[in-house]
């Protein structure tokens, strides 16, 4: 049978053989990519996170993804430095974690990342002095209250978007990185967004998407700079997660809970420099990449306009 197939191929014109070769190579690439996708999402074991150090620092740990990370890291046996702006919420989260994982040591640092950032970073440096902080989760971030055109952004929102999403992540990373370099080990996880990477544009959320694009490039550059120094840097790219920031209350197959996302996210730490840990999100990413950008742009604009209308109705009802 093989001889017969080879004979038929040899009898074909050169252009047919060329197309057959290209097609076979494309199928092989797809098959290998699929096997790799199955392995990294379902079979590859997570790394021993305690090898990086006994402490992890999480920014924005009182709600959403940050809170999910805090609980999952405690579950893995790490001690925590929790950094947030609300002291009462920090205490509530700390008490909840200690009630569930009694051996976990927790330090809290009150920092308003939209306020005096230099003072806040100084307090973080003081809090981690002498601690073996091996993992940094840069999760703190702000978005729009609802979709808005760029010219409608007020000065306060514009300032906070850049200060919290860009400046805070940059300065906290620099504050923690020094200790990691001394110990020659560490993992830095920066939370990006599909708004900057998966879809070609995010109209009516322009500045938010742009700040997350900064996080992506910042992470990739640090990954290259420090990969030979024992430090793993990664940008995680979630799509929608059921959080207050996303204004989604219920989780679903394509929209995980914060806890579900964090559980998946820990398995990816220390591997690729950019990843989407929750595997159903990778299906949406593949779909977005398969469509013409103009179609995705139009869909996203329509989606954002609907959010804008609902936000305007809420604003008007509050004023009344």
3D architecture notes:
The chain is α/β, with parallel strands linked by helices. The chain has a single domain, classed as NAD(P)-binding Rossmann-like Domain (Rossmann fold), CATH 3.40.50.720. It has eleven helices and seven strands. It has a seven-stranded parallel beta sheet with strand order 3-2-1-4-5-6-7, with helices on both faces. Strand 6 (231-236), helix 9 (258-266) and strand 7 form a beta-alpha-beta unit. The longest helix is centred in the N-terminal third of the chain and has 30 residues, at 14-43. The protein starts with a helix and ends with a helix. The model has no long low-confidence stretch (mean pLDDT 93).
User: What is the terminal-to-terminal distance?
Assistant: 80 Å
Q: What is the fold named in CATH at topology level? A: Rossmann fold
* Count of alpha/pi helices: 11
Q: Which structural category do the helix and sheet elements fall into?
A: alpha/beta
The ordered H/E elements are HHEHEHEHEHEHHEHEHH
CATH superfamily heading: NAD(P)-binding Rossmann-like Domain
Provide the low-confidence segments as ranges. none
Radius of gyration: 23 Å
- State the CATH class: Alpha Beta
- The helix content is 55-70%
